[in-house]
Design goal:
This protein is an all-beta fold. It has one domain: Jelly Rolls (Sandwich). Helix content is about 0%, strand content about 65%. The protein contains no helices and 11 strands. The strands form 2 sheets. Strands 2, 3, 5, 8, 9 and 11 form a 6-stranded antiparallel beta sheet that branches. The chain has a 5-stranded mixed beta sheet with strand order 1-4-10-6-7, with no helix packed on it. Strand 6 and strand 7 form a beta hairpin. The model has no long low-confidence stretch (mean pLDDT about 85).
Length: about 150
């Protein structure tokens, strides 16, 4: 998404309808367990021994269940990567009951992390999601999302 040498780098996308199949900014997570990069931000680090990077992320996860079950389970893995290496992982498994006439669920997972060991030069941070439990009857979408990196020099 480009290089920014400022102490604050924000990449965000706003989606009005995460279930809208027409919105090109909505990302459908593959149901075969393939990881999907949701957002990327580049941060320039000049003095890695004296630098920390605060990462804050948020994703609007929209689940559409095409079967008429009253109980649905889904699991999404969220990962933060630095230069291709995983530095944080969150497993989010949700079981929810739904009314007979409503088959959608929206979740807004977010997490923060302080990277105490950024590398010298350009550090590429990625927010990655994986649909672990899904299948053909459950579609999982990434709607609005944000990845913010704040660089602190100690």
């Amino acid at each position: 998404m480009g290089l920014n040498k400022e102490p604050l780098v924000v990449v965000q996308m706003f989606v009005l309808d995460p279930y809208g199949f027409i919105d090109p900014d909505v990302i459908r997570l593959p149901d075969d367990g393939t990881s999907q990069v949701i957002l990327t931000v580049d941060v320039c680090v000049k003095e890695p021994q004296e630098t920390q990077v605060l990462l804050e992320s948020m994703i609007q996860i929209a689940v559409d269940d095409f079967e008429f079950n009253t109980l649905t389970t889904f699991e999404v893995i969220y990962e933060l990567l630095r230069n291709g290496d995983v530095i944080a992982t969150i497993n989010d498994e949700i079981d929810y009951s739904k009314p007979d006439d409503f088959f959608r669920h929206t979740n807004l997972p977010n997490f923060s992390l302080v990277d105490n060991n950024p590398s010298l030069g350009i550090n590429t941070y990625e927010l990655v999601c994986t649909n672990v439990i899904g299948g053909a009857s459950i579609a999982i979408f990434a709607g609005s999302r944000s990845l913010k990196a704040t660089v602190f020099t100690l």
